[in-house]
Amino acid sequence: MSVRVVEIDNPPVNALSAEVRRGLQAALSDADCEAIVIIGAGKTFIGGADIREFDQAPVEPHLPDLLLALENLDKPVVAAINGAALGGGLEVALAAHYRLAAPTATLACPEVKLGLIPGAGGTQRMPRLIGVAAASDLIATGRTVGAAEALELGLIDRIESGDLRSAAIAQARLLIGTKPVRTGDKAVEPAPPISIKTRGRIAPLEAIRLVSLAAELPLAEGLAEERATFLRLRQSPQSAALRHVFFAERASAKIEGLDDVNPRDLKTIGIVGTGLMGSGIAYAALKAGYRVIAVDRTEQLAAQGKERIETLLKAPVQVSHTLDDLADADLVIEAVFDDLEVKTTLFRHLDAIVKPTAILATNTSYLDPDRIAAATAHPERVLGLHFFSPAHVMRLLEVVRCKATAPEVLATGLRFGKKIGKLAVVCGVTEGFIGNRMFSAYRRETDLLLAEGALPAHIDAAMEDYGFAMGPFAVFDLAGLEIAWARRKRQGAPRVMADSLCEAGRFGRKSGRGWYLYEDGKRREDPEVTAMIQAARTGARDIPADEIVARLLAALRREGEALLAEGIAARPGDIDLVMINGYGFPAHKGGPMFSAEQEP
Predict the structure, then answer these.
(1) Tens digits of residue pLDDT in 391-407
(2) Catalytic-residue membership of 249
């Protein structure tokens, strides 16, 4: 019995390019074989469509037509899911007549993250396998499932722990001569649509609508509606913005001058300071497989840090109170109090303890890392690794290239960031780096809006309607007002309204009072704050929401342009990534720099 094995080999992710589609079409047309097995080369089954084709003229064969032809074959087609089956890759598997997967396989339809919906049958075939509710959840959120959950849902037929290729061939032989089980022929039970928070995003709602239609329309009509919706969304501003973010992430990893630089191998990571930030960094490093040596100043602080890390890790760890224990570390990250004298003193001590090849990293938010590096005998091995709190959750990592940072040190910092699951963005030295400097400009404009007549709740509502998860004043309260207050006092900065709040003991959510009043976990406007703002004004006017949004976005763009002009940020997309991943800028708007380019 003749089984043809079709291997998708299009590195790095086996994307369904036009060439791959033509090859698959040719394989499906093979009249001499009695069954077909589709498998991916390497560790990926099929990583989805080639996104670069989205802005080009369509090239045949189109994937929806190809998969309909695959599904309608009279010979069995087995999908052997050897790794990631994403987007169009999962749609290939859905159109096959049998699906078996390796235990390490992952499956997802992540198109909503690009402002799209599956365009080759995903919204119509998936509910025929796993039901409307489960399909709506997977497609509208874009979340990934492993092989075990996929089997439980009914997305695959079997998990194969042995030789997947051999098992798939054997399964295909068993199916020869039987009637193919076509996903599109299965009935769908109607179910109430699920409800999710979309914050202005269109694609998740369209995904839920289309999945629900699978219970109402014949397959052909459902596929036609899905395709029309996909093409419409592909031309939408939201999809353009999210595709910009996708390509910006790829570009952020390409750093001038590092093409031929080999990063150092890191095995042991030292963490100095085991507060909330240090504990989060330690957890992220431990989860990534590094050996971690955590150190704090005293036995008591070390014990508290140990408890924090173990609470996160759910496993025992060792925390020391002796810097000498860092002698074997390959990279030491400080997460101590953000004070220049504290950090420079620490780095002088570390310089005498760690081995010559060790890298020293500062997690400072606002201090000058060049001054910290200058306190050491080897400033070339110093860089900034600015994590965002909580460090084990937040994806962004600003990798700060100091004046003397050696290329291989920078390259090592970037690889470390990638291994611990962070989006690493390189920036130069400036107060606040990219993110906090941008946010300071944003904060200054909110002060001006307050002075001219707006109130915190009005400003927050305008920015939340634009797409931010939280408005600026809600963010200020969440972060705590006392940190910025202390910094302003150290710098002798001009007085702002937030100073009066702090002097009144209003430090934000943690104290129950800040810009808002917090009771029973809920925030509400506080007449006392309103009175304080109005008393400080010399005049006032009603400021419409669209002006609030326009002014705050303009403030971000101006600061971004200055960062680019000064060489602090390498490209506009890097600034967009920082604001999206560190400060809640809505990804479907593309970031402050991208959105500025889209305005007429």
Answers:
(1) 999 999 999 999 999 99
(2) no
State pLDDT tens for residues 15-50. 999 999 999 999 999 999 999 999 999 999 999 988
Q: Choose among 336, 284, 327: nearest CA to 309.
A: 284
Q: Would you put residue 317 in left (φ > 0), alpha (ψ -120 to 50) or beta?
A: beta
What is the residue-averaged pLDDT of the chain?
Answer: 95
**Contact predicate 351/376, CB 8 Å:** yes
Calpha distance 114→553 (Å, rounded): 22
CA–chain centroid gap for 374, Å, is 34
Identified catalytic residue from 71, 111, 398, 482: 111
- Global pTM value: 0.93
- The answer to whether residues 206 and 170 touch, using CB atoms and an 8 Å cutoff, is no
319-320, strands of its sheet edge to edge: 319-320, 291-295, 268-272, 331-334, 359-362, 382-387, 396-400, 423-427
Catalytic residue at 334? no
The DSSP bridge pattern shows strands 44-46 and 3-8 to be unpaired
The first and second tokens of residue 68, run together, are 């309909």
- Considering the candidates 19, 71, 91, 597, report the single residue annotated as catalytic: 91
Q: H or E element: which one contains 62?
A: none
